[in-house]
From TrEMBL:
Domain of life: Bacteria
Pfam families linked to this entry: Bac_transf
Tagged with keyword Transmembrane: yes
Protein's UniProt name: Sugar transferase involved in LPS biosynthesis (Colanic, teichoic acid)
Residue spans crossing the bilayer: 20-41
């Protein structure tokens, strides 16, 4: 094992400590927001408060990601891309999506060890394509835990086409460090405050070439 690889491995262990600390504090500090949001969703439309969805995690293993529900029931039948003025999005959902409040339940995913605060955003099991359709180079993005935010998210977020998004995710894996994560964290806060690139209205996935 090289010096850099050893440093990266040590940081991964330290990163878990950071994740537990930050997500625990995050849940405590945002508890009033979590409660108000839960009440608003329950009062606004019928259905569960928390939306659960299968995603690809570490080493391609599946897990359920948690989000506040921002759409009506069975909205996924309408496709993975949000349309402009999408009628599937509830009135409460528009606000929590715009402000990224819908992502706050992922603090629980972090505490469970399924996600990290910083890392590649977890892809759907079938979108942009199935796990076995990723190339070996692309699969390197699954060598770390998925994150609530990541390198691709501060470089265009949902406007970035998936091949480029995956390339950025692999670049993140190659440059994993406390300094890199800290920079991503603060740039994410700026993005959230400015409410940039938080709508997935353009098709960003093309058919993947067959993996040999």
């Amino acid at each position: 094992m090289t010096y850099n690889e050893n440093n990266k491995l040590n940081y991964i262990y330290f990163k878990r400590t950071i994740d537990i600390f930050v997500s625990s504090i995050g849940l405590i500090l945002t508890s009033p927001i979590l409660l108000i949001t839960a009440v608003a969703i329950r009062s606004n439309t019928p259905g569960p408060i928390i939306f659960k969805q299968k995603r690809l995690g570490l080493h391609g293993r599946t897990f359920e990601i948690y989000k506040f529900r921002s759409m009506g029931m069975n909205a996924e039948k309408g496709g993975v891309y949000e349309k402009k003025n999408d009628l599937r999005v509830t009135s409460v959902g528009k606000f929590i999506r715009k402000t990224s409040i819908d992502e706050l339940p992922q603090f629980v995913n972090i505490l469970k060890g399924e996600m990290s605060l910083i890392g590649p955003r977890p892809a759907l099991m079938y979108h942009p394509w199935n796990y076995d359709k990723y190339s070996e180079e692309q699969k390197r993005m699954f060598s770390v835990k998925p994150g609530v935010t990541g390198w691709a998210q501060i470089n265009g977020r949902k406007d970035v086409e998936w091949p480029k998004r995956i390339e950025l995710n692999v670049e993140y894996v190659d440059n994993l460090s406390l300094k890199f994560d800290t920079m991503i964290f603060f740039k994410t806060i700026l993005k959230v405050v400015k409410m940039e690139n938080n709508l997935n209205v353009n098709e960003t996935a093309t058919k993947q070439k067959e993996v040999k």
